[in-house]
Amino acid sequence: MNEITLTSLKSLPEAARQFINSLGDRTVVTFKGEMGAGKTTFINELCRQLGVETDATSSPTFALVNEYRSDTTAELIYHFDLYRLESLEEALDMGVEDYLDCGALCLIEWPDVIDPILPTDVVEVSLSVNPDGSRLLRWQ
To answer: What CATH number does domain 2-139 carry, 1.20.1280.290, 3.40.50.410, 3.90.580.10, 3.40.50.300?
Structure first.
């Protein structure tokens, strides 16, 4: 289990680089944590570290998935927010399996509804808020 305490927004870039370096060949990453724990904020920093323009990322709450392209590598990154999905069938109807199998980096918030179809090598991230307001980022 890997773990980083994020004491402030200034610690995000280094934490994101450390996280990216730990991924290896794995491309599907899920993010769990309470509302406001920092999932979207951390994903935005991951995208910046991967070469996506600073202002190009946002939460895909209403679109369910946003597509970004790295300005440095031209690789695609998919950012999912599945909070509004109520069933696995809805996810399958939107083509989530195609995304998971495409080889591009898939960053998935609120993944519980698609747990049954996630690959075995998924990187599971949890974010929690500490009593002092810092965030604890854990992944395996």
So the answer is: 3.40.50.300
